[in-house]
Amino acid sequence: MTTKTSNVLQTLAELGVSGDAQVPPLFAELRAEFDRDAAAVNDEALWKEFRDAWLGRKSGVLAHITDNWLKPAPPELKRAVGQALNELRAHVEAVVEARRAAVEASAEREATARERVDLSLPGVRRPIGTHHLIQQTFQEIARIFLSLGYTVVEGPEIETPYYNFEALNIPEHHPARDTMDTFYLDLPAGAPPRLLRTHTSPMQIHVMESQQPPVRIIVPGRVYRRDNPDSTHAFAFHQIEGLAVDTDITFCDFKGTVEYFVSQFFGPQVKTRLRSSYFPFTEPSTEVDASCHVCGGSGCRVCKFSGWIELFGAGMVDPAVYGFVNYDAKQLSGFAFGMGVERFAMRKYGISDIQLFFQNDVRFLRQFP
Fold first, then answer.
1. Is the pLDDT at 278 greater than 50, yes or no?
2. Helices (H), 214-250
3. Are 216 and 241 in contact (CB under 8 A)?
4. ω into residue 156 within 30 of 0, thus cis?
5. Running DSSP on this structure, what letter comes out for residue 125?
6. Domains, the chain, ranges and CATH?
7. Residue 287 Rama label (left phi>0; alpha psi -120 to 50; beta)
8. Omega before 268 cis (within 30°)?
9. What does DSSP assign to residue 184?
10. What's the pLDDT at 11?
11. 78 φ, ψ (degrees, to nearest 5)
12. What is the largest CA-CA distance in the chain?
């Protein structure tokens, strides 16, 4: 209750019974004081103080009017005072309730404004993991061959000598089968021999055993060889095997597929060449080279000043391989290739040490998001 309101009440108490003509002006002045107080209420704390000052049962303004004016008033004034008091009470209660609603609405708007998410602001990007560069290279190679109608198949990393060697026309006396080159598993006596596959080529046999031509597959996976780790060798690395078998597949089909793949992976400016080579399961066999992407074929340290970089081995499937899967070598032909994924990633991204792929150095990995 304000000082001015107290003065009004004191004036009412001091007036006594002097005629009902004085009642309306005093209540009008009190109502004006109330309206001024109400205009200053703008938060919950002030509203509670304002409500208690006017409607408090013991010390509120209306309670004071009832005790100090209405009750002791002579009978001839009680009617005028009571009527004016009721009108003031109705006005006070209505305004107090209105101010309560206004204060609550204002508080809700302020809370909403504080908690509102401004969608126009740029978001906070959390760092998330990405595929390893080897996986990215796998995916890029697979995308190219999938566009040519190939399918992706996977196989076991533990193989038998039959699928890893014999069925691929690698006889028992071949040096590749020596323990100096291959990881053989230490198994109990009498158990069939097992080894860690040295290439993804065994899946050629698995697929041809279970599927009649046409066959067009690529086989991504990890392989193992007894190599001493250095900048270009690792005892575990990754390959993608490719196989296409059908009627009337020629060496021209093979050459066109290789040229298309290399141009898609390295860019149309890179050229290819085929060099005669030897692999037990292809005949004729070739090494696929690409013009150096660094010097464009003019010669540099990367290509050892030859202008060419070796990519992978390939060739037409040796007819002897078809004999292991009951394919008719007189009716069918095809080609196969096996490429090292690390080699392709190193050539494309200028990486000089294969060991970087396996060291989990985040400074290296963050260069390939």
1. yes
2. none
3. no
4. no
5. P
6. 3-115 (no CATH), 134-365 (3.30.930.10)
7. beta
8. no
9. B
10. 52
11. -60, -40
12. 136
Tokens describing residue 309: 């970089």
328 versus 128: the higher-pLDDT residue is: 328
* Helices 44-55 and 23-39: angle between axes, nearest 10 degrees: 160
Give the side-chain half-sphere CA count within 13 A for 247.
3
Residue 16: the pLDDT is 46
Helix or strand (DSSP H, E) at 158: strand 158-159
State pLDDT tens for residues 337-352: 999 999 999 888 888 8
Of the listed ranges 220-234, 301-315, 327-341, the one predicted with least confidence:
301-315
Closest CA to 321 of 264, 257, 243, 261: 243
Per-residue DSSP letter, 129: -
Residue 347's Cα: distance from chain center in Å? 28
CB 311 within 8 Å of CB 239: no
H/E run at residue 218 = strand 215-224
**pLDDT for 61:** 76
**Whether the Cβ atoms of residue 224 and residue 193 lie closer than 8 Å to each other:** no
Q: What angle do CA 178, 346, 291 make, to 5 degrees?
A: 100
Backbone phi and psi for residue 222, each to the nearest 5 degrees, phi listed first:
-95, 140
What's the mean pLDDT in 58-82? 71
- Residue 255: C-alpha distances to residues 3, 178, 261, 295 (Å): 104, 33, 10, 24
Amino acid sitting at position 331: Q
Which string of DSSP letters, residue by residue, matches 257-311?
A: HHHHHHHHHH-TT--EEEEEEEETTEEEEEEEEEE-TTTTTS--TTTTTSSEEEE
Indicate if the pLDDT at residue 176 is higher than 60.
yes
CA 82-36-2 angle, to 5 degrees, is: 75
CB 216 within 8 A of CB 142: no
Q: Which of 300, 333, 106 has its CA nearest to residue 215?
A: 333
CA distance 335 to 282: 8
In terms of phi and psi (left: phi > 0; alpha: psi -120 to 50; beta: otherwise), the region of 98 is: alpha
Is 15 a residue whose pLDDT tops 90? Answer: no
Residue located via tokens 């401004």: 118
